[in-house]
């Protein structure tokens, strides 16, 4: 991994660049990260390490800075202080699939890829997400769940060592959401990349992640390690215990009607 890791994304304060981490030490290493908007620190001295191949879920109240952190890790925001080390090969999928309406699905999947790869590359990724039969379709003819899978295929063709997902299932109906969660779990196990999943759904976090983080006050305020066997069973008492602990951390009353954050 060491050769795949680039140095600090940038710093507004001039600092000595940190040495690259030892091979396979981390997929993500964030040290003393701060991001201010109009003088207000949304991220304030945040530390984060993600192991190669680790699935991490990130929870936190609306507006606490989750998407800001994700955008920084994706290299989309460089107005930061601190050190951010991420793999060179990373991909991001957002809540809205962001497909270009004037390009067919397979062309959307290849968009921005270097080296002009051919259609078979797109079709292979579309097959992997169960969308091979819609390769030639226009984006506007896709259902919400299909569009989200196309967005995942677009992330997968980048063969990422780090997959960044910002509420990718947020706009899906309950059944499609469950299928999409399963798909992401399978892709992660098959690909072995590190995943950082931003979600508001505590149950989704506990279903999928090795570790669940709660962001608050600009830092990672809490983390829960999950040793539950996979596939996970929401009826498992340990599942319920971790979910309850996380809901409490999020300031949600726990009781008979846990519905997520
Ligand atoms: N470009 C920007 N300019 C000014 N303020 C911003 C900008 N981007 C984000 N913010 C502010 O930073 C804070 C964190 O935003 P962010 O989108 O990271 O929150 P979030 O945790 O992802 O919230 P949600 O769960 O609602 O998606 C918010 O108060 C937001 O208004
Ligand atoms: Mg957000």
Verbal overview:
This protein is globular. Helices cover 29% and strands 22% of the residues. The protein starts with 27 loop residues before the first strand and ends in a 12-residue tail after the last helix. The protein has a domain at 103-159. The model is unreliable at 1-16 and 257-261 (pLDDT under 50). It contains 7 helices and 9 strands. The longest helix is centred in the C-terminal third of the chain and has 18 residues, at 174-191. Helix 3 (119-128) packs across helix 4 and helix 6 crosses helix 7. It has helices spanning 66-73, 105-110, 119-128, 144-156, 174-191, 202-208, 237-249, and strands at 28-37, 40-50, 55-59, 81-85, 90-93, 162-166, 194-198, 211-216, 219-225. It has 261 residues and is of the alpha/beta class. Residues 66-67 line the site of magnesium ion. Magnesium ion binds next to helix 1. It holds the Pfam family ABC_tran. This is ABC transporter ATP-binding protein. Residues 28-242 form the ABC transporter domain. Residues 1-27 are annotated as: Disordered.
